[in-house]
Design goal:
There is one protein chain. The chain has a single domain, classed as Rossmann fold (3-Layer(aba) Sandwich), CATH 3.40.50. It has eight helices and seven strands, in the order E-H-H-E-H-E-H-E-H-E-E-H-H-H-E. Helix 3 runs antiparallel to helix 6 and helix 4 crosses helix 5. Bound molecules: zinc ion.
Length: 254
């Protein structure tokens, strides 16, 4: 754990590239608003059909630069075997108490990949338990950590769709968001242009024809229904509140 201080918004995901695929535009918008942003990947994605963990780590570094993250770490849990155990919970609680995020972005509970569902449950529980003073943890120097509970947990959309509670307008950062995704050449088999590259490796869900277009179409779809060019959808268990009713309006009155 680096001593990087607090983070305003923390994305937690099962695999390096999950945040880039799902909610990198929201991270970029937060950065533009002057907030501190971070990502915690729970595994190194070592079970991926394509690439190697070493190559994936390099791609993650490149994507993190594009996203201008203040913080990115990997918890080193086993890919394909994320379990909601006390041991894993404590690891996550320590990280949440260290970074003290105001908002956490996590996978949705219903997902195609079992690791995404497990990451959702683990993050959901850790966000709550991190706020309980009687669950004691220490930092890397053995110092007792203060309890901390994020004020809002928002769930991002991966494979399966859901009815969003809120959609973030990411039109201003869409190109950078796609660049961050395309940094994972080993996973998507595409260059920065989005054009499919020649590769002898096996095709996967992510390299199939139309995948890139699907990601773009989804962003266009959710953007369109809030009057924006591109949007990222989120589901929350809690109701969303605001003191400023006009903050709920994203369309400009031309
Ligand atoms: Zn994943």
């Amino acid at each position: 754990m680096k001593q990087s201080g607090t983070i305003d918004i923390l994305g937690i995901a099962a695999h390096p590239d999950d945040v880039e695929l799902s909610c990198a535009g929201t991270m970029l918008m937060a950065k533009r608003a002057g907030k501190k942003t971070g990502i915690l990947d729970l595994t190194r994605g070592e079970l991926s059909t394509r690439g190697t963990p070493e190559l994936r780590a390099k791609e993650t570094e490149e994507a993190s630069k594009i996203l201008q993250l203040d913080e990115r770490e990997n918890l080193g849990l086993a890919d394909g075997h994320i379990e909601v155990t006390h041991e894993n919970m404590v690891k996550l609680i320590r990280h949440i108490r260290h970074l003290r995020p105001i908002i956490m972005l996590t996978p949705h509970k219903n997902e195609r990949h079992p690791d995404h569902e497990a990451a959702s449950e683990l993050a959901h529980q850790a966000a709550f338990y991190a706020g309980l003073a009687k669950i004691e943890t220490t930092d890397d120097n053995g110092k007792k950590q203060e309890p901390h509970r994020p004020l809002l947990v928002m769930h991002f959309m991966q494979t399966y769709t859901f009815e969003p509670k809120v959609i973030i307008d990411i039109s201003d950062v869409f190109e950078e968001r796609m660049k961050a995704m395309n940094a994972y050449d080993s996973q998507f088999g595409r260059g920065a242009s989005g054009r499919k590259l020649e590769s002898k490796e096996l095709d996967t869900f992510l390299t199939q024809k139309g995948f890139y277009e699907w990601i773009e179409a989804r962003a266009r779809h959710f953007g369109m229904i809030i009057g924006a060019e591109f949007g990222e959808p989120f589901w929350t268990q809690e109701a969303i509140g605001t003191k400023d009713i006009f903050s709920l309006v994203t369309k400009s009155i031309a």
